[in-house]
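WARN no homologs supplied; continuing
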Amino acid sequence: MDDQLQPPVRTVWWNEDPSATPSFSLGLLDQTLLPQQVVELSLTHELAVAEAITSLRVRGAPAIGVTAAFGLALALRRIVYDYEQQGHELSLALAQEQLFRTAQLLRQTRPTAVNLAWALERMLLAAQSVLVETSSVAALVERVQMEAHTIAAEDAAACLQMGRYGASLIVDGMSLLTHCNAGALATSGLGSALAPIYTAQRQGKQLHVYVDETRPVLQGARLTAWELQRSQVPCTLITDNMAGTFMRQGKIQAIFVGADRITANGDIANKIGTYSVAVLAQAHGIPLYVVAPCSTIDLALETGDGIPIEQRDPGEVSSLGGQMIAPLGVAIANPAFDVTPHHLISAIITEKGIARSPYVQTLQQMCAISNEKVSSLDE
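OK structure emitted
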């Protein structure tokens, strides 16, 4: 990775420590405690990984996918370790059962982000490929763990590529808006929507970022503002309902957001409130750019109407920082994501290039491009 573009924070990683018991663990930065506390978790059980995803200790579509991949490797290592501690040898049948059971557990944690299911399927395919060649549990463990590391490394590399493509759309002196957190905290690398901002800054471009707070969980206020400060990117935190005013005042020239799922026609699911930002952007003639790796593209879904939208705990809306802010008994809706239709999106930036309308064609092209032939689809 380019030394000039190191992620401002480490989000998800694998630990090997011979002095620890057990010697392996999955490392996560607990994002529920930011920005007040920076706490690193060491997880040794797949149930803890599932809880971490569900509770938003780790979040962001690419980071969830990487975490799920490592979670599968962790589950296999754990059951092998448990059997060894009991003086037994794990059978290949039980190893396979553990993989599928853990995949089912993790797949149910968050339904909207397609990266999670994508990573799990890729891990299971890797496991099946090695089982064709050997009946060795040790070989299976090695192959599964290697695949998880590969997924993490590819995500980090994709972040750098998205940063380079996206930075080409940022002009020196621009003020930008972002919604939710699609930075290093949402990936295993530099980020998705924040990667172009970090890259443009490294290129010497002067810029300023307006950060939507992103109710109800405040990913913008707690996470994006914290990330940008750590990277010394000039930023201003605003409430979600201020975005239109700043657009009208001419203070925002472009918008960069991430995505949790992109359908074949270019519709996207992203953090709730993205649709409102997109409508305001169109009304003010401001380009809205979606930045996400190709693992976020779901060509099996024709439109955003088919995207499952996660419904989260009403308590996230009725309370803030542990303090109730709503009357007891009031009805509460809490969809975690909304769908932004493709006609409101100026371009979709992935590690393979910049896709523009008609997305039905350009996204299919993009998914077909090999990693060795990365090129821009900008028209």
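The two ends are 29 Å apart (CA to CA).
OK
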